[in-house]
Amino acid sequence: MASLKLVCALVMCMMVSAQMAYALDCKEVINDLSPCEDYLFGSADKPSSSCCSGVKSLNNAASTKALRQEACNCMKSFAESYPSKINVNNAVSLAKKCEVKLPSTISSSTNCASIK
């Protein structure tokens, strides 16, 4: 019985530490935003429903200051990778058109350290 309690305690500790160590991966951020490329690059007039689903998913995943800053840095890197392709007006309006309040826009000039 004591060994069962020890196993349960270890499993609980692993679950708590796994949640605390969660970090947004840039690959995850890019996957969430990839359906938005047509809109971000100016070849679509409005974001698709799959784009908005990805924006909402990213917003939900970035639930702490640290995660929001990580997501911001990933979006910034994405913007830096395509400086001449991104339609700045579309990037700025993406969150509003998807009815999501994001702490930053997709821009190479965003100061991610200021995200709260």
TrEMBL record:
Organism domain of life: Eukaryota
Identification of the protein by name: Uncharacterized protein
Annotated source species: Pistacia atlantica
